[in-house]
Amino acid sequence: xxxxxxxxxxxxxxxxxxxxxxxxxxxxxxxxxxxxxxxxxxxxxxxxxxxxxxxxxxxxxxxxxxxxxxxxxxxxxxxxxxxxxxxxxxxxxxxxxxxxxxxxxxxxxxxxxxxxxxxxxxxxxxxxxxxxxxxxxxxxxxxxxxxxxxxxxxxxxxxxxxxxxxxxxxxxxxxxxxxxxxxxxxxxxxxxxxxxxxxxxxxxxxxxxxxxxxxxxxxxxxxxxxxxxxxxxxxxxxxxxxxxxxxxxxxxxxxxxxxxxxxxxxxxxxxxxxxxxxxxxxxxxxxxxxxxxxxxxxxxxxxxxxxxxxxxxxxxxxxxxxxxx
Length: 325
Known about the structure:
- Helix 2 runs parallel beside helix 7 (about 195-225) and helix 4 packs antiparallel against helix 6 (about 165-195).
- Strands 1-2-3 form a 3-stranded mixed β-sheet.
- The protein has 2 domains: about 1-225, Alpha-lytic protease prodomain-like; about 230-305, Cation efflux protein, cytoplasmic domain (Alpha-Beta Plaits, 2-Layer Sandwich), CATH 3.30.70.1350.
- It has helices at about 1-35, 40-65, 80-110, 120-150, 155-160, 165-195, 195-225, 230-245, 280-295; strands spanning about 250-260, 265-270, 300-305.
- It is elongated and about 85 Å long.
- It starts with a helix and ends in a 20-residue tail after the last strand.
- The chain is mainly alpha-helical and about 325 residues long.
């Protein structure tokens, strides 16, 4: 299970590194094109790419800090560091990308600047689209693989996943591809009509797109920071894992909470089989706890004994579905 966790973490790291490299190259190209053409949409796209580049650095920090092993000072580990740094990245996308693009677009509506060399803009947009597609498909493959394990749609997995770096890269790359189409339309209409208004509107639309993405990312990270519960499929899978132990008769309480990317805190109340002495029951509980913690998704498991009057939990989902975050 540890190898599976390392593979998933490594996959997220590769996704972020690819996105960082792509955004750096694209940001430089867009900046040069913006200076040459004077296009408002291209300037917005340059701001967008620089914001994404900065975000990838923060996401790399998130991956590094959240992967530290738990210690006495942090008994639940450092997993939530990923949500902190991912939220900072989302705020950066909002301010450096969205606000800058919208502000520049509004300025261009009232004080338009002359634009030209549209061919340069089209070439840069085309190259950027190819590079951004490479980064997007890396994030898409990772999300689709996780979605298949849980029998979810890919977009559903991106929104519900406990992995904030995957969600951020997927969302930012999606926005980048849409933004390129908006920028192309704005520049093309500017060239055809001779009016700078479509170009300025394109800059504003790119900014609004980034704002929506940033708000969604901030909200998702907020949920995990304050204690995000699990979806029914994960709850079913972990309940089944508890009940699979030969010593466990029934399950009356189950609390599951994400404490980091693909890391759960599990608390359960169980009824043990037979009527064994207290010291034997205590040892059996500890064995089950340690076995549960061998699962790549469980950071810590705490079991307590149920009382005879407590009702057993029942789950209606397919127990064969694997647990993943």
